[in-house]
Amino acid sequence: MISFENLSKTYVSKGGVQTAALTGVSAAFPDCGLVFILGKSGSGKSTLLNLLGGIDRPTSGAISVDGTPLSDFKEGDLDAYRNAYVGFVFQEYNLLPEYTVGQNIALALELQSQRAGREEIDEVLRQVELTDRDGNPLFDRKIGELSGGQKQRVAIARALIKKPKMILADEPTGALDAATGEALYTLLKGLSKDRLILVVTHDRECAEKYGDRILTLADGEIVADTAPASAPAAEGEKAAFRRGRLPVRRALAMGAKGLKHKKLRLAISILLSAFMCFIFGFAFTAATADTLNTQLKLSYDHGETYVILENDSYYMATFPSGNVEKIDISHIMKPQYDALGEYFGEALLTYARPFGTNQAWDNLGERPENSQKTSWSDDPYLQMIYRNSDRAVEVTPELMEYFHIAPDPRLKDPSVCRLPETDSEIAISDAMVDLFMAAGYRDEAGNIFEIKAPEDMLGKEYGHLTICGIYTTPENRAEMAEKYDKTYDWSSEPETYKYVQGLHLMGVSFVKEGALERNEGPLYGDHPLVGSFGYVVKLSGDRMKDRAFFDRKDVTFTAPNAEGMECHYSLKIRSQYSVMVEDAAYTFTDDSFLTVAWWIGGIFAVVSALLFMSYLSVSIEFRKRELGILRALGASKKDVILICVFESLIMAALIFAISLAATLVWCAVLNAHYLAPFFIVGFIPILSLFLLCFGVAALATILPVYRLAKRSPADILK
Ligand code: ADP
Ligand code: MG
Fold it and tell me: Which ligand 1 atom sits nearest the alpha carbon of residue 45?
């Protein structure tokens, strides 16, 4: 039995205006019977019903359910009360239009964590006479295909399926014609035999005809009651209700349904957010790209067991040109050298020195008139260095093995080709001969010679050393040249491109040890630049172990240079793949690129969070009615939050999937372009992208959902 005493409800609008909807009303109802509540519009009928149904809270006064005050109910008990004890029938039906009759009814039971059997539902449908002409229940009908009277019957069936102790109906016939209305009252009258039914109506005639009792409200007070209030029941046992939860599967489906509403807005929100997350994902991938690892991987993939490790320092850059002295930095690099020997077993110190500009020009046949003033990139000889350092290396048995030294097969008489025997001789690579054949050779007196065949270079001077042999090295020059021509933008250097197109200029020159000390003149230009030292090492066979080596503090470190400036020292790999990998690294892992990408990524992440939030707010606003209905039916706040969370999780998952796919595709395109697996979307970029997408989703969900959860079901339904 349900009773209330001194019940008051005062609404406070946002502007602070107070409306007293109920002012201290009391009554008690027995466990069954049909009770009508009459009154003019605005007299407080709906307010009373909402309070009794637990979808709104009174300002003061007490409602007692089977002897237990409703105010003692915990949040969960109240949800259970709404769901199990009460069956609410609204004037506006409040059915979920996207579901069928059967699904609408089943949902009421699902909220109690109960499964509704088809049989059970059909029986209730027969009970409310919702059948076709042949008497088959309209289980699979869409709500939109029903008449007003039929919809109201679905609403009653939805209440009945729960076998509630009490049915509350707020103007259930308000939208129906008189005949349909009467049929409904007959139905309710029958149902009130074993439960209490409270019906709000304007229709005094019907109330008198069907009602067991009539309550009349005016201005928030009970002004008439055909059966005076009996004494409130004594405190009994605390009413206990079966608490239920919306099944997760159903919440997920409802969350997914939410995405069906504003499709264009959804598509735009998701694509924009995904694009922004993609920028972030790529920036992260670029930031975690590892030049050394890529080079190692390429070497291992191609079965190359030897690589040249070169000291990579900012040392030279700290010296303005013209102010360069020959400075021995070997003591700084000694730890590196020691570490190399320790790790790789044998590390061969070689000399790899860039050629000076003068020497380069001296040997170039067709030197453009104004070339002295043009940038170094117009200089084919410096291009030679740029494309992949030409280097002078002392011949050792290990290197002969590594380079598979063989005379240039183009030589008609290979016996004229030999390795240097004195420190005034040099053996050059076939790659360099290609360049002379393209550009011509100029001697010291300025005479230009056309070079038609490799033989023509034998005996000529190269950096004041006499060329004694032309050897091939094992790299696939044609392939590498093609790659490089494609990769590098030559449009600003047409003069150079004329000579170097189709040539891959990686060349290793072989000299005797003394040649390097002896030649401080033209071979290295006028400046005896301290070049980079190279170490030839045999890889250990374990790429991860090799990679870890480069992070050692005695391999990568900072130390002061001769001018007292802190300089960074590390090792980098020189191989035929270096150009591509370094080009990619130069373009995409450069500090300014990364800074810009980070900022853009960061700003985009914020914008994307806002977009996400605005979409969810709109979507929740749009579905408020649906969520309010669920709440009124007894869904807990948690259930409703779960639905919204699922909706945003699905969105986040879509954004994550799209942006990850975009990042993967873009990285694959770049890797194909640079012919190196440089951009690896590894665990850390994926994790960051994941955290970004789902973090943004969480941020965007909290506010709208919090606002929704705070409101009472009656409030949401308004
Ligand atoms: P009835 O159902 O009898 O037409 P209601 O119970 O809906 O009347 O409303 C009673 C009074 O309370 C009316 O003056 C109405 O304007 C006011 N009221 C109802 N709901 C709210 C609300 N959420 N905020 C402010 N005033 C409200
Ligand atoms: Mg009303």
Answer: 3
